[in-house]
């Protein structure tokens, strides 16, 4: 199952979904008029869609050459920005190079599609430049947003089933829309992650349940490019400061000469170091 540094391993899709990913709740306004009975289950169209996404999540992964299945490896889940797909994170060669060097498996889920928001409904802090341009972060329709969350968590469950993953060393990061998704999934599933690293994307600090991270010992590394025109620096600083006040083991990195597209790349060495210093306990 090992690969070289410049390639990525794409596991075959599983035909089953574990109980956890099937039990993710539906959106509050889910359509329920049309149902289909499968065995003893009666499924709405939304449940049918969720089941299909959960059973065949689309993702790309990198497996270091030292992996042979006999020893558990740490896992990093990377969420792509709006308009991209599961291949986008691997366009940064440093990601696979560091994963190879430090012995990490890296997984990049598609989510439901290129613009679905990984389930987040937190208010987003952006400048006017983001609203006027093409690089801003927007929340998609509720159903696509929900299915994107299902896809990410199903990918995680699938990789855990099929590979020898160290459950105490599972990490989550993302940039742009992926940053918003990482913050949402960290708060909703805090038992899954040892640490997160959201970059170039901020939710409003007042709306975020930092207590969920603190109570479950989820560390947080906030990353901001000094030339980011879309995410205000003070919004990221607010997240960092409130996380610290809530008892989260948090750190803030400001990347010189980096914008919203490449700050996460510039911070990758520090990100892997941060992950290496944190285990779930």
TrEMBL record:
Domain of life: Bacteria
Species of the source: Pokkaliibacter plantistimulans
Dienelactone hydrolase domain boundaries: 73-258
Keywords of the record: Hydrolase, Signal
Keyword hit for Iron: no
Classification via PANTHER family: FERULOYL ESTERASE (PTHR43037:SF5), UNNAMED PRODUCT-RELATED (PTHR43037)
Full protein name: Dienelactone hydrolase domain-containing protein
Record's keyword annotation contains Hydrolase: yes
């Amino acid at each position: 199952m090992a690969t070289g540094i410049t390639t990525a391993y794409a596991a075959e899709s599983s035909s089953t979904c574990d109980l956890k990913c099937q039990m993710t709740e539906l959106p509050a306004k889910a359509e329920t008029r049309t149902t289909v009975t499968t065995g003893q289950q009666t499924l709405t169209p939304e449940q049918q869609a969720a089941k299909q996404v959960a059973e065949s999540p689309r993702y790309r992964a990198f497996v270091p050459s030292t992996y042979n299945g006999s020893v558990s490896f740490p896992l990093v889940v990377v969420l792509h920005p709006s308009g991209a797909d599961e291949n986008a994170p691997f366009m940064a060669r440093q990601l696979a190079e560091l994963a190879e060097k430090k012995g990490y498996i890296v997984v990049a889920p598609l989510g439901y599609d290129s613009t679905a928001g990984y389930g987040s409904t937190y208010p987003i802090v952006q400048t006017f430049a983001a609203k006027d341009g093409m690089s801003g972060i927007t929340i998609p329709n509720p159903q696509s947003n929900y299915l994107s969350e299902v896809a990410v968590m199903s990918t995680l469950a699938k990789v855990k089933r099929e590979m020898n993953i160290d459950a105490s060393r599972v990490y989550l990061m993302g940039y742009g829309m992926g940053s918003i998704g990482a913050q949402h999934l960290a708060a909703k599933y805090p038992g899954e992650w040892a640490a997160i690293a959201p970059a170039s994307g901020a939710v409003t600090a007042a709306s975020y349940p930092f207590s969920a991270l603190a109570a479950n010992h989820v560390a947080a590394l906030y990353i901001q490019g000094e030339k980011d025109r879309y995410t205000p620096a003070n919004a990221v600083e607010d997240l960092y400061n409130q996380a610290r006040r809530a008892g989260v083991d948090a750190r803030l990195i400001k990347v010189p000469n980096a914008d919203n597209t490449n700050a996460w790349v510039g911070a990758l060495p520090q990100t892997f170091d941060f992950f290496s210093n944190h285990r779930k306990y």
